[in-house]
Amino acid sequence: MFALNSEHRYEYYTKACDMRKGFDSLCGLIKHELGRDPLSGDVFVFLNKPRNTIKLLHWERDGLVIYHKRLEKGIFPPPTIATNQTRLQWPEMVMMLEGIVIKKMIKKRRFSL
After folding, report:
1. Adjacent-strand bridge partners of 87
2. Contact at 8 Å (CB) between 81 and 92?
3. Are 8 and 43 in contact (CB under 8 A)?
4. Which of 30, 31, 82, 100 qualifies as a cystine partner to 38, CB 3.0-4.6 A?
5. In this structure, what DSSP letter does residue 50 have?
6. How many Å apart are CA 31 and CA 52, to the nearest integer?
7. First vs last Cα of the chain: how many Å apart?
């Protein structure tokens, strides 16, 4: 069951990733290159160089889960995030998975604490 939603934090790995990597190798990238804890409950997003494969690594209550999707045609558009930033918002994550590219986006200000 796909158990991800807007309550999770999404961290994008900005370099191309070898999709042969499994749980331990991806955890190593998270620890050593992102400086984050893979068991934090955050969702870590990895794309390969041709951008036709995506992996999401997520810690649930009792273990790690990898969501792996390969497109037969087309690519995953890279997220439009600021330089030196790796955090994705839920809407950006959904648009990336669905292949939606917005040419011009105006985001209205909203209240936040």
Report:
1. 11
2. yes
3. yes
4. 30
5. T
6. 25
7. 32
Q: Which two tokens mark 37?
A: 């804890």
In whole angstroms, give the CA distance from residue 77 to residue 38: 24
Name the one residue in this structure whose structure tokens are 């999770």: 8
52 close to 75: Cβ distance less than 8 angstroms = yes
Distance CA 108, CA 90 (A): 16
Helices (H), 30-111: 90-98
Phi, psi (5° rounding) for residue 33?
A: -100, -35
Where would I find the H helices in 47-100? 90-98
Per-position pLDDT tens, the chain of length 113: 567 888 999 999 999 999 999 999 999 999 999 999 999 999 999 999 999 999 999 999 889 999 999 999 999 988 777 667 788 888 888 888 888 877 777 778 888 88
Residue 37: alpha-carbon gap to chain centroid: 15
